[in-house]
Amino acid sequence: LEDIRLTDELSDLLPPENYYRVAEDVAAGLEETKLLDLAVESKRLEKRMALGEALPQIGVGVTYGYNNVIDKGSMNGLVFGMVQIPLSDWGKTARKMQRLDAQMQKAENDRLYLQRQLVLQIHKLWLDLTASWEKLQVSEENADMAETLMTRMHDQYSAGMVAVSDLLQAQTQFAQAESDLLDSRIEYRTALQAYLDRTE
Asked: 93: which of 21, 38, 99, 134 lies 20 to 30 Å off by Cα?
């Protein structure tokens, strides 16, 4: 246990503005977005491949040879071409193209929907972070007021102006305010870590 050292101080927390990043830019750089882009591109390539199968195909070939029959040698050459037009599968290909168009459109819609979900998630993390910062500020003010009240009560008790029960109540309020402040700092640090995990 002697080797464990905490390098993060809960009292040295910076405001959320120091960590802000534009949600749309963050979402565009996430791995999930890149995977969605790849899914759309794969559907686009699948459609292009299907279209390529339906297009006419042209083949050209050349052959060349040498014959030696009864000491009479001759050189022979041949050039040939072939055109293949897939007429019989036009209906099947048209249906396949419609299906691939629908799949490509669905992939693009899924990408758009999920990108918006990522942006909303980042916005929510930002709102959670700013709300926890506001709560932390209120907790700090409450702790300062409780400390001031406890100091005043202690002075008044020493002067014999208040009863011990009033002093004990002020000390209890101060202890509660300090506990709430610690909880608020932990809550802010947790919200900050969640935001940083998603945006960095």
From this structure: 38
pLDDT tens digit sequence for 67-92: 776 777 777 777 877 777 766 677 77
CB atoms within 10 A of CB 196: 13
Ramachandran category for residue 71: left, alpha or beta (phi over 0 → left; psi -120 to 50 → alpha): left
pTM of this structure: 0.69
Residue 30 CB coordination number (10 Å) = 16
Q: Over the stretch 106-120, which tens digit does the pLDDT of each residue have?
A: 999 998 999 999 999
| Cα 108 to Cα 39, 46, 94, 141, 174, distances in angstroms | 9, 14, 21, 50, 57
Residue 49, CA distances (Å) to 58, 60, 78, 85 in order: 17, 22, 32, 16
Across 41-55, 75-89, 135-149, least confident range: 75-89
Q: Are the C-beta atoms of 119 and 66 separated by less than 8 Å? A: no
